[in-house]
Design a protein that fits this description.
The protein is α/β, with parallel strands linked by helices. The longest helix has 27 residues, at 216-242. The chain folds into 4 domains: 4-46 and 156-211, no CATH class; 50-147, Nucleic acid-binding proteins (OB fold (Dihydrolipoamide Acetyltransferase, E2P), Beta Barrel), CATH 2.40.50; 253-441, Rossmann fold (3-Layer(aba) Sandwich), CATH 3.40.50.300; 451-607, P-loop containing nucleotide triphosphate hydrolases (Rossmann fold, 3-Layer(aba) Sandwich). It is built from 24 helices and 21 strands. The protein has a 7-stranded parallel beta sheet with strand order 11-12-10-13-14-9-15, sandwiched between helices. Strands 16-21-20-17-19-18 form a 6-stranded parallel beta sheet, with helices on both faces. Helices cover 40% and strands 18% of the residues. The structure holds adenosine-5'-diphosphate and magnesium ion. Adenosine-5'-diphosphate binds next to helix 10.
Length: 693
């Protein structure tokens, strides 16, 4: 249960004074729906209002805070002229000017004859010292609320600085000091203050330097969030690791049959990864392992062999892909090999319906079917397995963490192997998986040649198309990629269709089109034709991005390459260079190129190393965006920024490990405080993994 101290923080934002139905949606958009979200909305800069001066000393353009006596109000002769209020101090005259003013309001806030403190930017204009629309007007005894570093918050439409600051102050007022959850030695060595003190100081900085992401105040808050995340991951992992029904200890007879049937020998990397995975499966703990291998490194066969280890032991296994196309491709690759081993398999996607689906479910429930390949449809409630022991999840970055858990719930604590082609940089790995076990396929299958990558402006398209024609005559298969992004989907689709028509005019019936808007069956048919060589040119939107395997394809043209991200370009290019023939990738851009786009294309030309590309991508884009946080299931951080706080991340990872070793159920005083931390950052889903809830 959420600790009581946090109750007020998890109320909706409109429970705060001054936040009504008009402001609510804007605050939700800007920060989030709960009071706590406002705490995480830190100032982006400050305005220094500490400079107090006399009217005569106020320079043009200076931000000044002055105490003046209010004099005559001069109403404007017409609407275009400002309302003027003449004020004085001992040194001179200051004229406050207001456009479109409400005179009632002004007579109330600036009554003639009274002293007022005004703060704003001074202008020397027409031999007058003026201040147009002062930022603050307060009574003299309230001067301290003005004389300070004023936080400036990032805004959104429908919220002003004043209103937002008020809401945030309301949220801050709901907070109080809490028992420290950090290790005292760490606090000392970093010179960190308590949570409450740091939070207050971050919002009301006494020095501009507090805004630095690595100021002690902000660092501490970032570390809170990172530790909450790493601790939650550690808890989930530990919870999953311990609960295993039976170890998977196959005798290898099925694996041997498949290895004998393969037209190639396994690479050293594949061998190593396999033995790591098999050893893990054979242990009493449940496996939670990531198989990381660049595009084309041969993850599928590793997946199959590991699934067979579970099947040898009398179990069932599933392989889940993020898309229909990929699921069918897996079926196609695996089916003949499964057959060679005498293993029964099926596919289950959204497209299997009615009787057909019923039959498939029966086979899985009674154990007659040993391998199921499919999509998210494998998760549905009515899908039961007789003895599910192993789950492989392909192209992981499309799935969220909870989906992994859902699948795992289908079997009695099944072993889980997550495969990813995205070479996730170590920093991101840690935040997404904690210290999950990893096997890597570093080496590519033998005989692969580097892809020759070149960059062309779009006015070279004509000669590129002619070059492709010559290639086609010598039997090459070609991907022709057109971008399709959601924002401009219709236009993009039209462009892809136009390109398809153009190329058909040039190359005749050897051209096919596949795009994300097509029906599943149509897509499959086109893909199959390309795979079988019935068509040689595949015009495609990015649906081919992940996993598609046609080793005979050796040329890829990517139009509007400037619109793709690095990771995406890398994934796309990974579709070629899969056979023994030399491959070519032609990146065609529409100028003028922005600085970042130019860098991306340059990196693509220079390297094929997925890890180098991922690190460069991280540098160019920043972590949150790297994989598209939302769809990736990667955590979004509010206080931490992986560019600024990468070192804190590794400290947090170690810290979490130590905590879970010494206080696995979070029962000590510190453990208790850490529970509050998990709730504070909404990582409390992990708490259910604690024995004592
Ligand atoms: P990815 O890791 O991108 O999923 P795949 O599993 O699709 O890669 O494999 C890419 C291609 O490499 C496939 O055509 C596959 O048959 C082939 N392949 C896999 N392992 C080897 C190997 N050891 N030697 C040669 N070819 C291999
Ligand atoms: Mg694959």
């Amino acid at each position: 249960m959420r600790p009581e101290v946090l109750y007020p923080l998890f109320k909706p934002v409109d429970t705060l004074k001054g936040v009504g139905p008009r402001l609510k949606p804007a605050l939700e958009r800007l920060a989030g729906e709960h009071v706590v979200d406002l705490l995480w909305h830190l100032p982006a800069s400050v305005v220094d209002r500490r400079h107090q001066c006399h009217v005569a000393d106020a320079g043009h353009g200076e931000l000044c805070t002055m105490t003046v006596r209010v004099g005559e109000h001069i109403k404007p002769p017409n609407k275009r002229r400002p309302y003027r209020i003449v004020c004085h101090d001992d040194t001179g005259t200051l004229v406050l000017t207001f456009f479109h003013a409400h005179s009632d309001y002004l007579t109330k806030t600036l009554p003639e004859g009274e002293l007022r403190v005004v703060s704003g930017t001074v202008e020397h204009y027409n031999n007058e010292i003026q201040m147009t629309h002062p930022d603050h007007v307060v009574k003299v005894d309230e001067i301290d609320t003005v004389l300070r570093l004023e936080p400036v918050y990032p805004l959104t439409h429908g919220v002003t600085q004043k209103v937002l600051a008020k809401a945030i102050n309301g949220a801050l007022a709901e907070t109080k000091p809490m028992s420290e959850w950090h290790d005292q030695a760490l606090m000392d060595s970093r010179k960190w203050l308590g949570w409450h003190e740091s939070l207050m100081a971050a919002h009301e900085p006494e020095e501009a330097s507090v805004l630095d992401p690595n100021s002690v105040q902000r660092q501490r808050l970032a570390y809170d969030e990172l530790l909450a995340n790493q601790l939650a991951l550690g808890l989930v992992r530990r919870g999953m690791r311990k609960a295993k029904g039976a170890p998977n200890t196959g005798d290898g007879h099925l694996r041997q049959k498949v290895i004998d049937a393969l037209p190639f020998a396994l690479t050293g990397s594949q061998d190593t990864a396999l033995s790591e995975i098999i050893a893990d499966m054979g242990s009493d703990y449940r496996m939670l392992r990531l198989l990381q291998g660049d595009v084309g490194s041969g993850k599928t066969v590793v997946a199959l062999l590991t699934m067979l280890a579970a099947i040898e032991d009398g179990g069932q296994a599933v392989l889940m892909a993020p898309t229909e196309i990929l699921a069918r491709q897996h079926l196609k690759t695996i089916e003949p090999l499964a057959e060679a081993a005498g293993v029964t398999m099926t596919i289950l996607t959204g497209r299997e319906k009615g009787k057909n689906r019923k039959g498939i479910l029966e086979g899985l429930a009674n154990g007659e079917t040993q391998i199921a390949v499919g999509t998210h449809a494998l998760f549905q409630d009515d899908v039961d397995f007789a003895n599910l022991r192993m789950a492989v999840i392909d192209e992981q970055h499309r799935f969220g963490v909870h989906q992994r858990l859902e699948l795992a719930a289908k079997g009695q604590a099944v072993d889980v192997l997550v495969m990813t082609a995205t070479p996730i940089p170590r920093t991101l790995m840690l935040t997404a998986y904690g210290d999950m076990d990893v096997s890597r396929l570093l080496e590519k299958p033998a005989g692969r040649q580097p892809v020759d990558t070149r960059v062309f402006p779009s006015n070279k398209l004509g000669s590129i198309a002619e070059g492709v024609a010559r290639k086609l005559d010598s039997g090459t298969r070609v991907y022709w990629v057109c971008p399709l992004v959601e924002e401009s989907e219709k236009l993009d689709l039209a462009a892809a269709e136009d390109r398809f028509e153009d190329l058909k005019k040039m190359y005749g019936n050897r051209v096919g089109l596949v795009h994300g808007r097509m029906k599943g069956k149509e897509k499959d048919a086109v893909m199959a034709d390309f795979k079988d060589g019935k068509i040689d040119v595949l015009v495609a939107t990015t649906v081919i991005e992940v996993g598609v395997d046609v080793p005979e394809a050796t040329v890829m043209v990517i139009e509007h390459a400037e619109r793709f991200g690095l990771a995406q370009l890398h994934q796309l290019r990974g579709r070629i260079g899969r056979g023994t023939e030399a491959s070519q990738c032609l990146l065609v851009y529409q100028g003028p190129l922005g600085e970042v786009a130019e860098k991306r294309l340059k990196i693509m030309r220079e390297t094929e190393d997925g890890f180098v590309i991922a690190e460069e991508d991280l540098k160019l884009r920043g972590a949150g965006e790297l994989l598209g946080t939302r769809q990736s299931g990667l955590p979004e951080f509010r206080m931490a920024d992986l560019n600024d706080h990468a070192d804190l991340l590794s400290v947090a990872t170690d810290d979490a490990k130590v905590i879970l070793e010494s206080d696995p159920d979070l029962k000590t005083d510190r453990g208790n405080a850490l529970r509050t931390l998990l709730y504070l950052f909404e990582r409390d889903a992990a708490i259910k993994y604690l024995r004592s809830g």
